[in-house]
From TrEMBL:
Pfam families: NAD_binding_10. Signal peptide: none annotated. This is Putative NADH-flavin reductase. Residues 7-196 form the NAD(P)-binding domain. It comes from Flavobacterium chilense. Gene3D superfamilies: NAD(P)-binding Rossmann-like Domain.
Length: 208
């Protein structure tokens, strides 16, 4: 497969690049900084922005699936996620792009906010409120578009790399528990789902 990974320079995106290449896929990696991405014969690196229609079009054109894995360390008010969504909708419309687009947001965005644990609710409220508000806008824009979407909401991200099993939750219901999950495991889910989409048009929570 030809997998386009948007936000590939660090975190979930970088892990997804590595795992996709290990499984023999061709990867087009878009990031504002591709320095940390190891070179590989099946890898195309694009230095650019997910909010640039030109850069995004170059990255996703001809791909079999798109992974949106962009994150930010900016804890202040941001429109990054909604800006990416608007650019994505514009570019996919122009390209008449009909392949799946898997989008990482976070558990606490959209309706999942009602199901947060006390601890996660406190963390998001104190430090990540603006990010998650904008991730909610991103979800709303994409879910109402013509994109063949899947929205993935991981729990609190860690850098553990222990290959632990993880849970995939496709329904919000009283009593669900979503805690931590490693970026490696999120990437594992993304590549598996890219290869064989089972949860299109659904909101999926991931937790260890």
């Amino acid at each position: 497969m030809n997998i386009a990974i948007i936000g590939a320079g660090a975190g979930i995106g970088l892990e997804s690049v590595k795992q996709a290449l290990q499984k023999g896929h061709v990867v087009t990696a878009l990031s504002t900084n591709t320095d940390q991405i190891p070179n590989h014969p099946n890898l195309i690196k694009i230095n650019g922005s997910a909010t640039s229609p030109i850069d995004l079009r170059q990255a996703i054109k001809g791909s079999d699936v798109v992974l949106i894995t962009v994150g930010t360390k900016n804890k202040k008010a941001t429109t990054l996620f909604s800006d990416i969504a608007k650019t994505l909708i514009k570019v996919t419309d122009e390209l008449n792009y009909s392949s799946p687009v898997l989008v990482i947001t976070g558990f606490g965005a959209g309706e999942s906010k009602k199901y947060l644990s006390f601890f996660m609710r406190a963390v998001i409220s104190l430090f990540l409120k603006d990010q998650y508000n904008n991730k909610t806008v991103m979800e709303e824009l994409i879910s109402k578009s013509a994109i063949k979407w899947e929205i993935i909401r991981p729990g609190m991200l860690t850098n553990e790399n222990n290959g632990a099993a993880y849970s995939v939750i496709s329904k919000l219901q009283k009593g669900i528990k979503v805690g931590k999950i490693s970026r490696t495991n999120v990437a594992h889910f993304l590549i598996n789902e890219a290869e064989n989409q089972k949860l299109l048009y659904q909101y999926v929570a991931l937790t260890n």
